[in-house]
Prior knowledge:
- Residues 32-277 form the ABC transporter domain.
- InterPro entries: AAA+_ATPase (IPR003593), ABC_transporter-like_ATP-bd (IPR003439), ABC_transporter-like_CS (IPR017871), P-loop_NTPase (IPR027417), PstB-like (IPR005670).
- By secondary structure, the protein is of the alpha/beta class.
- It has a domain at 116-236: 3-Layer(aba) Sandwich (Rossmann fold), CATH 3.40.50.300.
- The protein has helices at residues 70-77, 100-105, 107-113, 128-138, 144-157, 161-164, 177-189, 207-220, 233-239, 261-266, 271-277; strands spanning 5-8, 20-23, 31-41, 44-55, 59-63, 87-95, 114-117, 195-199, 225-229, 242-249, 252-260.
- It has a 6-stranded mixed β-sheet, with helices on both faces.
- The longest helix has 14 residues, at 144-157.
- Bound molecules: adenosine-5'-diphosphate and magnesium ion.
- The site of adenosine-5'-diphosphate (ADP) has 11 residues, from helix 1.
- Adenosine-5'-diphosphate (ADP) binds next to helix 1.
Amino acid sequence: xxxxxxxxxxxxxxxxxxxxxxxxxxxxxxxxxxxxxxxxxxxxxxxxxxxxxxxxxxxxxxxxxxxxxxxxxxxxxxxxxxxxxxxxxxxxxxxxxxxxxxxxxxxxxxxxxxxxxxxxxxxxxxxxxxxxxxxxxxxxxxxxxxxxxxxxxxxxxxxxxxxxxxxxxxxxxxxxxxxxxxxxxxxxxxxxxxxxxxxxxxxxxxxxxxxxxxxxxxxxxxxxxxxxxxxxxxxxxxxxxxxxxxxxxxxxxxxxxxxxxxxxxxxxxxxxxxxxxxxxx
Length: 281
Ligand SMILES: Nc1ncnc2c1ncn2[C@@H]1O[C@H](COP(=O)(O)OP(=O)(O)O)[C@@H](O)[C@H]1O
Ligand SMILES: [Mg+2]
């Protein structure tokens, strides 16, 4: 059911009327439906006609060489693209289990439902406690007891509570890189999102911190939808249920193949998939 609901992009976007990200309500349950997503920066189109159904409560890995548009797809999903001057996204994105009409008009709700973790940990230059409290207050929570309970639960969920409970007022910037990344994950989780976008979340981390994040990804996917961009084929093998390969073809990023992780690794259909995945252990 297409309700023709245009997600208007920010005024800073490339500007024309056709620069919209429409949000359609689908009847089918259990997936993020991305239809014909195209992304441009100024006059440069970098992703074209990207369509993919991402199953709910599973890990979907987006793979492909640098520059093929993986991050651009991610920022189309939570509309961070609106914050980038000159970035124009067209196509439609719908979350079959959510009230897309509400999300269309309420970016704060959209970003609460669709959390994001970046390549480099980016805690706010506040205390550990305030990083999480800030997120909750931004979303209108005022009750002190509930705030405290949710902060403790989020820190426990990412395995940080035992490591930091005696220094919650210390600066988040004093934590190790791996701890900072888990704090950033807790900052997303404290808002109880149903989708978490992860853009190469382990590329700046040591192997032990990477393992912790991968274990969290597996656990979180029991009740949340994870979209994970990774360059690590080993990581994709360890955590992904589904995969999609993007490739820059004639100068534009396009979907080459999608499938279950097992099918993509064991019997890739496209020559590019075979070439890209042949180095997996
Ligand atoms: N803010 C931006 N302004 C202009 N071009 C950009 C911007 N962000 C990304 N690009 C370009 O878009 C293309 C896709 O980039 P990106 O989505 O980051 O790819 P990937 O995540 O697969 O490495 C690249 O050519 C990149 O240079
Ligand atoms: Mg990227």
